[in-house]
Amino acid sequence: MGQITTNNELEVKYGLPAEVKFCKKCVLSNQRPQPTNEAGFTKDSVKETTFFDEEGVCSACRYAEMKDNVIDWEEREKELIELCDRFRSDDGSYDCIIPGSGGKDSGFTAHTLKDKYGMHPLTVTWAPHKYTDIGWKNFQSWIHSGFDNILITPNGRVHRLLTRLAFINLLHPFQPFVFGQRLAGLRMALKFNIPLVFHGESPFEYGCSTMNETEERGFRKKYFYSDSNHESIYLGGVNVNELIKEFDIDLNDLQLYLPLIEKELKDFPLEYHFLGYYLRWDPQEVYYHAVENTGFEANPERTEGTYSKYASLDDRIDGFHYYTSFIKFGLGRATMDAAQEIRNHKIVRAEGAALVKKYDGEFPQKYFKEILEYMDIDEEYFWELIDQARSPHLWKKEGGVWKLRHAVFYEDQ
Ligand SMILES: [Zn+2]
Fold first, then answer.
1. Are 305 and 323 within 8 A, CB to CB?
2. β-pair partners for 126
3. pLDDT higher than threshold 60 for residue 320
4. What pLDDT shows up at residue 1?
5. Within 10 A of 124 (CB to CB), how many other CB atoms are there?
6. Least buried of 147, 173, 181, 369, by fewest C-beta within 10 Å?
7. What is the Cα–Cα distance from 181 to 110, expressed in whole angstroms?
8. Cα 259 to averaged position of ligand 1 atoms, centre (Å)
9. What is the Å distance from ligand 1's center to 91 Cα?
10. Residues 179 and 152 sit within 8 Å (Cβ to Cβ)
């Protein structure tokens, strides 16, 4: 079963576990990093990875078991109603912020809170690097299904530069989006004095670094907050002071990316909640709900790197986010999709492993030229950076071809 090899002699990048293990229940490996406050990230940062227990099962699968057998969902819904009662406005003002793109998760979240629980949300969107046609269409349908929205589009020159630096320094071209995605809703919460922020799906569905986190109702402050000044903040792996000095950027150009600081939040009674903590989250059900109620449409064609059609469709750079994760951690988009579907009882593990074998790490060819141009990187340099980012404990070169040393589908051969 689980392929366990010691890699004592091989270099390990990013502080990943030297021994690669696959979950006994899904297809996830122990190499997956956890969501964190990325504002301190440099080339040398060590990642916190997904917790695996003594039986070799990942925390996401254990959480899925709790969802099935332990959590009292009626009780949780009561807590949600109490929460909404505490904040619901009756004077025509907004009472909660819902950050999102109009994808299936934010579609479901906004519609459910407004329609079923009588809330008055203001939706807030942080624009993708480059909208896809389907992403823009879904965003518009969401608004037209009945929501006020603020779209925040960052300075294009700065966003492109940060994306280029994040790719060169961290092989993480999605990082500038992550900063805004996490912060945009909170900034609007502060600006409009709406202290309740709802995110849809709990990220702990996909794993956490300790099982205790599954009991958390929302992100803790550490994910978007810094108590220090700019000296310790890095964007795209470059210190903020250096960005200002070397790249002709004003501090004002960077404000949307900087974590909130303690004094901004000091007396603000911010509450950040995952709707997925209160309501049992099933991505496929959420998808059907969004199709029915907010005009959401799946991608007309299969998404490169996976077999699914309904997640993460908005941004032309999405495929590169998953591809670089495949290079750095050996885990691509099909792994994440298959693991989730196994946990939600849609497919069994062997099917998941076959899907990973077939699709994981497929190169996102469709927008390749466009993204190279966007990042101002030529193809040769692109591949040089890709190969430099491969950790020797995960990759080997055989006959001129890069191969993963460990894969969930090797177990069955
Ligand atoms: Zn698992």
1. yes
2. 152
3. yes
4. 37
5. 24
6. 369
7. 16
8. 32
9. 46
10. no
> pLDDT digit string (tens) for 154-166?
999 999 999 999 9
By CB atoms closer than 10 A (0-12, 13-18, 19+), residue 20 is buried
What residue spans of 260-411 are helical by DSSP H? 262-265, 275-278, 283-294, 318-329, 333-343, 349-359, 368-375, 379-388
Q: How far is the CA of 215 from the centre of ligand 1 (A)?
A: 18
More confident of the two residues 46 and 224: 46
Percentage of residues in the chain with pLDDT exceeding 90? 77
Quote the ligand 1 centre to 66 CA distance (angstroms): 13
CA of 300 to the centre of ligand 1 (A): 29
How far are the Cα atoms of 21, 26, 103, 329, 407 from residue 5, in angstroms, in the given order?
A: 9, 19, 40, 16, 12
* CB-CB neighbours of 296 under 10 Å: 28
Token representation of residue 351: 């099917």
The pLDDT of residue 65 = 96
- Centre of ligand 1 to C-alpha 335, Å, is 11
What is the band of 8 on the pLDDT scale with cuts at 50, 70, 90? low
Give 289-306 pLDDT, tens digit per residue: 999 999 999 888 888 999
- What predicted TM-score, i.e. pTM, was given to this entire model? 0.93
Mean pLDDT of 10-30: 95
Q: Which two tokens stand for residue 320?
A: 């590169």
What is the rounded average pLDDT of the residues 272-285? 94
Domains of the chain, start order: 1-413 (3.40.50.620)
Distances (CA, A) of 30 to 18, 49, 52, 118, 203: 10, 7, 7, 41, 16
Cα separation of 300 and 184, whole Å? Answer: 29
